[in-house]
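Co-fold these.
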Amino acid sequence: MRYMFIVRSGHQGPPTPELMEAMGELAAEEIRAGRMIDQGGLLPMPMGAEISLKGDKVSVLDGPFVESKEIIGGYAIFDFPAKEEAIASAVRFMELHRQHMPGWEGVCEMRPMAMQGVETEACASMPAPVA
Amino acid sequence: MTDGAAQRAVLAVWRIEQPRLLAGLARMLRDVPLAEELVQEALVAALETWPSAGAPQNPGAWLMTTARRRALDHLRRDKMLARKHAALARTLEVEEQAMPDLDSRLDDDIGDERLRLIFTACHPILPREARAALTLRMICGLTTEEIARAFLQTEGAVGQRITRAKRTLSESGLEYETPRGEELARRMGSVLDVVYLIFNEGYAATRGDDWMRPQLMHEGLRLGRILTAIAPEEPEVHGLLALMELNASRAAARAGPDGTPILLPDQNRDLWDWAQIRRGLVALGRAQALGGEDGFHALQAAIVACHARARRPEDTDWGRIANLYAVLARGWPSPVIELNRAIAVGFAEGPAAGLAVLDTVAEAPALQRYHLLPSVRGDLLLRLGRKAEARAEFLRGAALAGNAQERAFLSRRAADCG
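Predicted complex below.
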């Protein structure tokens, strides 16, 4: 089952070098463990834009933004057999923040990703190449 | 938290830490069966302690300390202390005193260590099923119970198989090294074979109510990704990952809600996982860029890719598929591959040409009890308008089919011949 981790924080400024290094090591380890599929940090909000639909009108907000709100700092996509593993992994990830970036506060949202039938239904067998 | 939930939480934390624990201990002890034992003992210790005392803040360090203490106990208890062990015990003791943060230096070279572990678990001196069980346990961190459920076997039988395999490894005195040169290619073959066996146990699952079988498919994919991360220069590693991703991408479309098989031409291609197909095609591209175009798995992946690239069945490049099967058959002659080539030729050049290819292997002993021979023959005959002959072939196929779904399917095709 795939899980997406989304990290939100009101904290401003880049991570400390120690945290960057620790997260880099963890990512390398998780890739070699075959568990991490993809990950990325997100650049500051002013470099992006907000495209919204409200009252039947699509509008583009291309900065400047109010910086005080919580923003998404990064994401990662993992492959775990069950929710418990996903939680354990996210706890470990947050533990790195506690150790390497004192004072940082934030939330790592862990969300299972919807997948078509794969996880809930077993698949019938037909040898290649007919099925 | 209930007892069951608490146990699952401990197991989950352990499973997250397990790759690093095992790699670290194996490197320290240079004894994989012992390292594996200690990692399991650390889990038992955690299950005994954490639910009542609470999980430690740094569970990885806790597990590693526990495992290392037990390693020391074990080495001290062992009356047959080899000199290597004595020296190792001293080193461990010194480290124990000097370094409270025991696991911090284990991160280096963990990729190499994992590769060595995979080569050990998949060693050719072990029987094939034992290799699969040991790989699932050591590399994927599955418990014996989970492995048993996945292979529809008893926990006792799987436990015994693992114990025997570990004893064989211990007694063989084999060098705990990453093989090189020609030996590497041979040993890598065994690793890929085991990974594909695990994947196929999941992919070809026929009993639809067992949730563990999709997990095997998933573990196979994960093993494939591990291999591409730690042995990125091996083209066949990418070829196998491509083959697994491309096959797995059709999982949701391969069966109806009641478990009835749905053949490739009839599948709803909107249900294919197109992101997974893209990953499969990227992996195939890597295998080819590394010069592995004609590898066993890369060729099969290239065949599946022809299907994956076709948005509609009529877009399928059957000519290319037929050629790829011809290349595959030259390298790995097999009547089953010829049978598949006959299907492709049947679509590329027409049913008569397909039948001509099929007739060259119709007498092959390996195919005499194989239901797909009459099934494919029936299909070609039907397309040639030879209904009575087609009907007889479908009935013969139905009689040979091993599982109920396929039997029902072939009986229906026979009935449709009128």
